[in-house]
Structures are given as C-alpha cells and as structure tokens.
Amino acid sequence: MAVIALTIKRTTTPHIRSCRTCEDAWNTLQAMFGGRNAARIDFLKKQLDKIQMDEGDDIVEHLTKIRDLKEQLLSIDEVIP
C-alpha cells in the first residue's frame, strides 16, 4: 500500500487513505483515472491520424510510435478500423 501512496500525487492520496488493501486502493484509482475519456480518445486518434515519417527517420521508431498509440486506444476498448 505504501508503494502506491508514494507514487501518486499528494492531491490524490486522500482518495485512497481509507482503503484497507492494495486492491481497494488500485480499484479506487482505476475508477478515478482509468475510464474512457472522450477527450483522450480524440487526442489519441488525432495523433494516430497525423503521424508521419520524415526523411531520415528510423522506421523501427516510427512503427513503435504507431503501435504505442494503437495499444493505448485498444487498452480503453476503442476499436481501430
């Protein structure tokens, strides 16, 4: 429990102070921050739409950026056509 408390902002700590277990704390934090946020979904989709590889860029890094964006969208159950 201490590890969770030490890794979050001080302003968030009061929300988990009454939690008795790590699981309770995690569930509380997930409910607060883990939801499907429309603004986040739009931001990630726009990032994915506008990403482009410039001349001289490394193809592996470029593909990694695309994969990271895709995985972030998939993690919030957003379907990517």
What does this structure look like?
Pfam families: Retrotran_gag_2. The chain is mostly helical and about 80 residues long. The protein has 2 domains: about 30 residues, no CATH class; about 40 residues. The protein is elongated, with a radius of gyration of 17 Å. The longest helix has 17 residues. It is built from 5 helices and no strands.
- Listing every helix as H and every strand as E from the N terminus to the C terminus, the arrangement reads HHHHH
User: How large a portion of the residues is in β-strands, by DSSP E?
Assistant: under 5%
Shape: elongated
- Please tell me the total number of domains: 2
Task: Describe the main β-sheet briefly.
Answer: none
Radius of gyration: 17 Å
**How many distinct beta strands?**
0
Class inferred from helices and paired strands: mainly alpha
Mean pLDDT, nearest integer?
Answer: 87
Number of helices: 5
How helix-rich are the residues, as a percent range? 55-70%
Distance between the termini: 40 Å
Spans of 5+ residues with little confidence (pLDDT < 50)? none
